[in-house]
């Protein structure tokens, strides 16, 4: 690190105000993470409900590890490491940093305690404040800003994962405990559902990819894609519509399913969305506010890519490509929708003909997650952030009710394996004209 002048000087350095402003945004995000955890009891922090999920305690520590590893150790090396073994325990998949602790064993760690993890967060937060007040070269200031911004968005991703992992834990607990208290979603107040219709889009050459501003490397470079004519549904698929698919034997008709999806369905043995529960012939759904009767015109959620593709086939439709989705989303006037800030944490019925392109549920596309033409990953170890996962996964678009609103944009590419259901994922249909 190149230091310009005396770091103890009271004269603000060039870029200091910019870093401190960005740090304030980072701290707002980190405070939100800890606020979400105020809804937990101590016993909840260490539970790992399945190998693909992580305990809340791990999310709190890993997001802190990110800032310590990529920011503090590099630009403020005089700061003592909080704990020498945390570099391994809370590394996720950065093999360039070292050998991570096995993912499926994260729930076996009763130590460090929750209080120690909170102390770790405070330690790294204090170091970031010290770094933001230092005088650094223009080059280092630029690097610090980029890593701080990436760390902020990285923590927002983990806020969403934190909620999905808590829901998997609570939703498989026979007590069906609520995480939040809300009655915002109710059958009696659900508005009438607008008829499903399709909006036509003409063929043409369109631009796809991130606009100027922060983005992840997998959204770049912006490039041209030719789209043939297509039609996209005016709204999301509802619970009632998915229930009709089930009642028509949709889970038992192999002609509707991709081969891998059919095999996975048989292995899993489930014939309904992840959090649906039937009691005395009536369908209920576990939400983060508890177990409630299924709301017919709320968007169906927690369905896999395979389930979504089978439903689309049953509907004489298909899933959109990610490029079709992004082009259609570009006509939206704003990114308004039901996001995490509303604290409803469940997809809401459509209101006032709103297309729900953003928020409520992540929308499966038929596109396989891969690099754009000319893609370049971030330099160094941070290059492991996205590029290494460009295999065997499908792209989802639009964000969900658990996504922070200022984290999403039309070009954002989420990605999961098509068998995955614990994310807030749903369906929008597309058709050929």
Fold topology:
Elements: H1 16-37, H2 56-75, H3 86-89, H4 114-132, H5 138-171, E1 198-201, E2 204-208, E3 223-227, E4 230-233, H6 239-247, H7 259-268, E5 276-279, E6 282-287, E7 290-293, H8 305-314, H9 322-329, E8 362-368, E9 394-397, E10 414-416, E11 425-426, E12 430-431
Parallel strand pairs: 8-11
Antiparallel strand pairs: 1-4, 2-3, 4-12, 5-6, 6-7, 8-9, 9-10
Gross geometry? globular
The helix fraction, in percent, is: 25-40%
Strand content: 5-15%
Instruction: Specify Rg, calculated over alpha carbons.
Output: 23 Å
Question: Which architecture of the largest domain does the CATH hierarchy give at level 2?
Answer: Alpha-Beta Complex
Name the CATH superfamily classification of the largest domain: paralog of FGE (formylglycine-generating enzyme)
Q: Which stretches of 5+ consecutive residues score pLDDT under 50?
A: 1-14
Number of helices: 9
How would you classify the helix and strand content by structural class? alpha+beta
What does this structure look like?
A hairpin with a 2-residue loop joins β5 and β6. α1 (16-37) packs antiparallel against α4 (114-132), α1 (16-37) runs parallel beside α5 (138-171) and α2 packs antiparallel against α5. With 433 residues, the chain is α+β, with helices and mostly antiparallel strands. The protein is globular, with a radius of gyration of 23 Å. The chain has two domains: 16-171; 198-431, paralog of FGE (formylglycine-generating enzyme). Helices cover 31% and strands 12% of the residues. The protein is built from nine helices and twelve strands. Strands 10-9-8-11 form a four-stranded mixed beta sheet. Strands 1-4-12 form a three-stranded antiparallel beta sheet, covered by helices on one side.
